[in-house]
Amino acid sequence: MKDAIKLLKSSPWSAKIGLAIIVLNIFCALFAPVIAPYNETELAGDVWEPPIWSADAMPHDTPVILGTDHIGRDLFSRLMFGARNTITIAFVTTVIAFFVGSVGGFMAATFKGWVDQTLSRIVDILMAFPTLILALVILTVMGTSIPVLVFVIALIDATRVFRISRAVAMDIEIMEYVEAARLRGEGFWWVMKEEILPNALSPLVAEFGLRFCFVFLFISSLSFLGLGLQPPLADWGSMVRENSSGISFGILTSLFPAAAIAFLTVGVNLVVDWFLHRASGIKDV
Amino acid sequence: MNNLTRMVLKRLFLGVFLLFIISVMIFIGVEALPGDLAESILGQAATPESIEALRRALQLDLPPLTRYFYWISGILQGDLGTSLATNRPIVDLLGTRIGNTFFLAATAAVVSIPISVGLGMLAALYRESFFDKFISISTLTMISFPEFFVAYILMALLAVEFQIFPSLAMVREDMTFLERLYTIALPALTLTLIVVAHMMRMTRAAIINVLASPYIEMAHLKGIKKARIIFHHATPNSLSPIINVVVLNLAYLVVGVVLVEVVFVYPGLGQLLVDSVSKRDLPVVQASCLIFAAVYILLNLLADVLSILANPKLRHPK
Q: What pTM does this model have?
């Protein structure tokens, strides 16, 4: 704990801002029902009411801070619930992708031979597909539901995780202590968990941040295209889509959820950037 | 040179093989569809006879392997099948849209490549300076933005607030080249901003990588001027990574175009694809995905080949 605080104090301001953004988002996601003045699907007022600071804001008993959306729901409340839905799904997807990808990568690095060949070639083929196109093909065939969404994006992401964890594990695998463990007669799971994983952790943590950003943006994009989370569930990507027709009339409601997406990704990226810089141990020459 | 052609041919063969695998995957994916295509088209109220008739019309009664060969040989002859939603040949649907999509992507590429390579070089040259830091933070922010956020900000600013450009990119057949350019200004600008951020970061990294090598330090120690080092010593060796960066970003552009097309209601391939996915119009999805995948693979192949050509070490492998 002390180390963590010390580390935090030594971090540059950009990383601190990033960390603050992440904490704020997690807080909103956890306490959405407490913070949000309205319910996820509750009508609060008229269609596209302006935000509270605008000159022609409507009076309400409970404040409608950011105005209302295209059918009159409170935008601020939906943003809070959206944080909950989008961030949770993105997080679960990233965790699955990491589990599958890193176990695959470690297996390829440890067993080599045909295991490595098979896994690597499958990943090559999956990576030759443009990501969005692959997702669209699978979503057309299996329909759009949350489990399918999670599966598709986890699959796409697992290929990237596989690449990096295989490369990292390859370097660790040739170390004497791994050989010693193997000579001792330890099994694959043990070697993976006790010898390879702890040493591969720091590059993988940075990768986790990057992959989370990717997954998060990807889900938002799919939702924006109408192929992700389905209404009436609040989700930042679909909220942009629902309110986008207002833009041509100068109603900027859809920019709030879009900005929320950008805000969180910038935060995560700032932290990852610092982490990568620290982990690499070298400054740009 | 013989070695070189063999290497290029090998890559080419690999590309064709990948395309083949992808066509099989797209086909199997549709094959794995729960239920029957004919049933899902006609709905639940259909009589068994009409389903049977449609199955015959769609050749669903043939074995899968035969159908795959019909499908793929049709595509090779330029026949992409018929759309389920509109009942029109897919080639008619795609014709102008492919042109539109490539026009948009090409415009964005022409604008963004010189900007990003130039700025990337400058950032590498004056690294750790204020200029470099500013560029680094702003590109990082740009990368974190979803495409549609950039698109809507531009739209709200330049189309609604200041009304410089049209908010929707509705191109028509009878427009002149300049009119077209004006119409697609906003989508092209959106794509440019996104791609420039990626390309610049990668260009900067590639050049810094070269600048860190011992022979550059040697040149410094010999007292050669900075500009000469950059242009005579560093550039030839960073050419191959930069070409790679550029072409990879072009491939990214081809996919990034999908979202931007949807935002600006641009009549391109991406919009058709997204529409067809929500209508579950499978033949159109198959055809357009195949086109996107083919372009993507070709560009990746091009990146490979060009970086071999630009790198003497790869050109003459020992």
A: 0.83
